[in-house]
Protein 1
Amino acid sequence: MNNFPVQLNELKTAIPTWHSTVDSAGFRAACATIREHGGRLIALWGSDERARGQGFALHAALMDAPGLICLSLPLAAENPAYPSIIDIFPAATRMQRAVYDLLGILAKDSPDTRKWLRHGAWPEDQFPLRKEFDLKQQYPLSGDAYPFVTVTGNGVHEIPVGPVHAGTIEPGHFRFSVIGERVLRLEERLGYKHKGVEKLAETMTIEQGAKLAGRISGDSTVAYAWAYAMAAESLASFTPEPRAVWLRALLLERERIANHLGDLGYLGNDVALAFGFAQFWRLKEDWLRCNQAVFGHRYLMDSIVPGGVTVDLKASDHGHLIKQGDLLEREVRTLRDIYEEHAGAQDRFVTTGRVKPDLAANLGLTGLAGRASAQSWDLRAQYPSAPYDQLDVRMATHRNGDVAARLIVRFEEVFESLRLCRLILDRMPGGTVFTPLPPAPDNAFGIGMVEGWRGEVLMALHSGKDNRIERLHPHDPSWLNWPLLEHAIIGNIVPDFPLINKSFNLSYSGQDL
Amino acid sequence: MNTTTLFFQLFQNMLVLLAAPLLLGWVNNCRAWMQGRSAAGIFQPYRSLAKLFHKDAVLAHNASPLFRHTPYLLFVSMWLAAAMVPVLAIDLPLSAAVDVIALVGIFALARVFIALAAMDIGTSFGTLGARREMLISFLAEPALLMVFFTASMIAHSTSLTTIVETLAHKQFVIHPSLAFAGIAFLMVLLAENARIPVDNPSTHLELTMIHEAMILEYSARHLALIEWASAIKLFAYITIGIALFLPFGIAEAGNWGALPFALVILALKLAAAGFGLALLESVSAKLRIFRAPEYLGTAFLLAVLGILTLNLLKV
């Protein structure tokens, strides 16, 4: 790449990726350049390198037109700090706060240094991802005082919601400041599902890590497992068998369809159109049962491992899967017509929870929600790794950025994924599906990125000695999209929040780690 | 009043009490069938009530006596309201004593107390629900009164018994005004009973709830009484609708022979009404809460049109 402020080295991985070790000034300059190019921040994470005789390090993954750019910024062992990049990428705010909570690496000049993941489970002066922190150490629960931003004014009051909800959903706290029913401000507080995934990963070998990766966010298990496998394979400079990657793509598209069907049902349910809910969930259930019958797991867990896949298609499955896809497509087309023609439902969907394209671009809205707000990023279409390079994926986008747009993008993606499934089934090459991975070199960096149903799932893997995980950072697209939900609700009314929230359907587990 | 009518009254009271959950179960069953789900059976509400009555009640520390007593008050007032409606027979001791305005008053009494109880604990959801309930009901109440006035202008009485008697015996006279009033009443019925499209009785999304938000803090027997009272309220509203708009087949008080026939007719009418309610709920989506004023404004307008039509046709 030309005209880039820092020297870049190309990494061997399935997505075009460059890596560079930078200093503080170079870090900010590189971020600013990517921002100017219209690129965006994907992930920010830190690592403890003191065992290698260095200090700490901060890593960032950014997306620019040519591909993924990873920056590593070495930091001091005492009082590690780096210049904040919130002014360049506002999306970095929560990531910077999480990096401090986990590693004690401070972002200088950051306007928001409140805690993010720490809820009183460990003391303020302890940092779980530092190597000296003992995983088994239990601390007495300390208080969890958290300064929410308060809105004052005549008639303004607050509605605190969660983390325990009336329905069976993941925990998150939402603080609404409202006048009557109108929302003036929403502030999210997440981190209730923090379970130490990254710390746990450091006790594992690269092989064992695959099982953990598949359990970070259950609804995206295929995307996580594939991203992890991709990262592990890039560490070992290994290319999986062709049949294995074709099967991976089939599994990923099946996961996308299952989740979109579920969400389309939920969107019906949230406007009390129980008919839509029942129909879509019937279709999803049939789809999951087919997964169980053909691949041995309803949610396709543990199907993808570094080195290939653990499942294979029998010749007899081909016709069955094609037939099921055709049947599903017919039913979903009918249901789409019903949703589109239902005046009551459309009245609820259209203009609700709008994220305008310029705001989406500024804050880095990504994935499905991003595509509904004219943020045309889709790894499968723009940086197609095998087998997507032979499938010519058509990206679904929309400009309106409201609940209706996210609904339409979901419908279009279901149809596109069904088309892809058909193509994959017809063109799948023969051969073996698994080859054991050679051991990874010590102190190497591998990265994997997969377009899951929510958006891009990134997996950054730093290897240690004896094929062990030195540092694993799984990154969910929800990191980038949660802040936009706070904007989407502004000016809407309180009872529309569940609908808007569901139209994003972000992961708690994937971002709380 | 003699012993026979008294017996009729007691029989109707028990019938209302025991049949109300059955009607709810029937509506839920119809909904499940229409949505392609397998139904829980029409006796499910009884099982739910039995379950709740067997649980230990949990009360917030700062709950006042108002919070604890409201479920009983709610239950009794709904039962009383349902008992006043000429369901099976006319000229019952209770229904002769009260008129439609009192009926609206009893509903209002129950509503005021449930809203106060919702705010009693001080959680944000209770207040949220109470606020929304008041928004809905202050718009629904005038519409309901207008519906009753249309009927009472036909019968020249605000006594429900007289209205039913008049309408039941003049069933071949066509009252166009009742068509307006009927639609208005149906809209009010949906709004007042927390049904789709105004509220969603089966939602667990706390931010969208209206009725459910008010009773979120109740448990065990208190919740059971409230659920039962809601079932009775729905039953009462449907029977009022039947009494006003489909009164044929009702028995005279003390006429033993007409009772079985009246029972069968009532069961058929309730089944049809429950099916219709389920159908309406299955094809509708919930309105945005700020569309509720438009919706209830339409109901009010229709009811007023009913009165106007009546007066125009009289001249």
Protein 2
Amino acid sequence: MADNIKSLLKLWKLYARMDLHWLLQDKATVLLVVITETLTNLSGMAGVLLLAVRFGGVGGLSADEILFMLGFFELADGLSWMLFGNYNVIHISRRIGRGQVDHMLIQPRPLWMQLLTEGFMPFSGCHGLIIGIALTALGISRLDLSLSPTWFLLLLYYLVIHTVLRLSQSFLYGSAAFYKPVACEEISSMILDMNSQLGRFPLFGLPTWLGTILHTVLPIGLLAYFPALALLRDLGKPTELAFPFLVAMVFLTAALICFKKGLTHYAKYSCNRYKEMGHRC
Amino acid sequence: MRQPFRAGLATAKLCLKEQSYFGFANLLAQYLLQAGALAALLMIWRSLFLQGVDLEGMHLEQFYTYTVLSTMLAPLLNVHTPASGWLHDGTMLGLYQRPASIFAQLAAHTVGGWGMRFLCLSLPVFVISLLCGLDMHPVSLWFFPSLLLSVLQGFAVDFLFACLLIRIQNLEWTVHCLREALTALFTGSLIPFAVLPWGIGDFLQLSPFGTLAGAPLSIYTGLSEPGILIITQLIWNLILWPLAIYCFRASGERMVSYGG
């Protein structure tokens, strides 16, 4: 156990250093990455925010509440991106579909340890997190929220739920790439794109059936809308705490089962997409 | 004249077929994602109207039509040629070995790629919208020239992004993200300029990104007058096309690809 923790810390340090070196390769790269990452995060939430400003709120939330909700989304999304964004760990179907799991299986580290550490990019991938912290803090100050240690624990709880849901969905659907590497290479990206695009919308006013789907089967509502409501209005009812945990655990379990099953298939058939000259087809 | 046209058509047909190479799962996931996003945005407009906000004379149906049309015509309103990807993987070099202009080949590939989407997403969305009672008639027929100008301008913008990629060499993903970030908000494809606060929309709709999607969609739904928008589109085409051709030629010897 202690050895594992030591190895994890060592690997995180190593990947952080590699990320810094990549970012600092030249001035143009630094400038372009910083501008692009900042613009990407801002433009993603600007649409909903501008609508909320224009109409004094949207989807049952005031403009400031929308600001808080979007801040939470950026914070949680930025956190999961910073922890798992590099080397396509979060877009796992690309690694699988491109036959790159082979590279991982020959490393002298367990697969779980590689998946937990390889994606770490604290320098080139921290912009979403920083913007998220700034927006959430701005939202809190404008709403005059009373903060307590319980509130911060709850914030942390929903951040973990968000990360688990995104990763689980990516691994769950991405496992299809073990069987159909070409067709499903981009399936994780598509699921994550949908999460990012729809997760920023407040889901008020939807028909009950659609609302239920978007909080369970396709848990977009649990990424920002539900946590924002819980953090803003009604703290800590046992059912409200248990519900997202339950959904996240179902997705996590399903992802683990499917990934393991897919890996067994991969060990037998591998991924035969490369020509002799090295090009992928 | 007929020979290049037939060659272009054949390339477009090949490209249409190519769309199905990745299988049904890939196609379905893409289109379900876009249909889901469309449904969510329609719900947002609905919830706005349920709140009873003052939309200054604009109607819910205009917003519905704007959003539906934006999804249906997405590839025309924000043209993506395969240039950036092909520069990275080396396919671009093969185009120079063929007896046709690079622009024409890229255009044929792009147009061919639109077919599958029209069949699997645009057509069903259009039919469902009509069945739901949405009025899909254009308010002004100036929409058609505006759409044509928008597509032409889209090609020029895409070639300019390809030139940027050539210039900075190995940052394809970063340039892709930069472009997506700029077009997400500034083209008006997601949210009509007419509903943006502080008059931002008035400025954006005349910008080179704003005229891409915002102009034809606003003309179609009657959210803006066609005159000034079409003149602006003409001006941007006159500026951006010579610039794109010059930059592309100047970038020719800088092309570096990785292959594979």
